[in-house]
From TrEMBL:
Protein name: Probable molybdenum cofactor guanylyltransferase
E.C. number(s) listed in UniProt: 2.7.7.77
Primary gene name: mobA
Keyword Transferase included in the entry's annotation: yes
UniProt subcellular location: Cytoplasm
Length: 205
């Protein structure tokens, strides 16, 4: 898709998982990050994907056309990673997916759904399921960088707070389930137990 990029956040703490989530191996041999990139690569053109890591974090083997950026300041949360990713996107990208590395069931169809609804009237497209917003599985116009930087400068670090500053098009549960019945694209995992449950769900679907 012309003008579309993708940012994958990889620098979050993985203390409860006991291992770096980005490089954690799935049963098929891929890392969680590789699984996410595989789905994104079916939607985003070559050379327009950026992985954002913490300083010194190793991400393992990545496709050659995937750029790696780093948080400018440590432990500042996903908005810090979003800002670093926006700065690293190549010229010509005016829309971007924002995703996390710990959503291995993300599908290309779900990515396309987000992008499809990012019209000129909206700054962001965000799933809202049972009242819960999912700002880290969403699509944004790259022009939101101004608001992101302003929030960081004010030490407002919650990703959900960003949405209050933007024109948001919500994706409903029905719209999401139409392309991903199990809503696996929205399921992240922070512990080995959550990952096992996630993979069990995938095996049954």
């Amino acid at each position: 898709m012309d003008g579309l990029g993708a940012i994958v956040l990889c620098g979050g703490r993985s203390s409860r998982m006991g291992a770096d989530k980005a490089t954690l191996r799935l049963p098929d041999g891929r890392t969680m990050l590789q699984a996410v990139l595989g789905s994104i690569g079916r939607v985003v053109s070559s050379g327009r994907m950026v992985c954002v890591a913490a300083e010194g974090q190793e991400l393992g083997a990545l496709p050659r056309d995937v750029a790696v950026a780093h948080d400018r300041e440590p432990q500042r949360g996903p908005l810090e990673g979003f800002a670093a990713g926006l700065a690293a996107l190549p010229a010509g990208v005016d829309r971007t997916l924002l995703l996390a590395c710990d959503t291995p069931l993300l599908t290309a169809r779900f990515c396309r759904l987000l992008v499809k609804h990012l019209s000129a009237e909206h700054d962001a497209v965000v799933p809202v399921i049972e009242g819960c917003e999912h700002p880290l599985t969403a699509a944004y116009r790259t022009g939101v960088r101004e608001q992101v930087e302003a929030m960081l400068a004010a030490d407002r670090l919650r990703a959900r707070d960003l949405l209050a500053e933007l024109r948001v098009r919500a994706i409903t549960a029905d719209e999401a389930r139409a392309v991903d019945p199990s809503l696996g694209s929205l399921r992240s995992c922070n512990t080995p137990e959550e990952l096992s449950a996630l993979l069990e769900t995938a095996a049954k679907s």
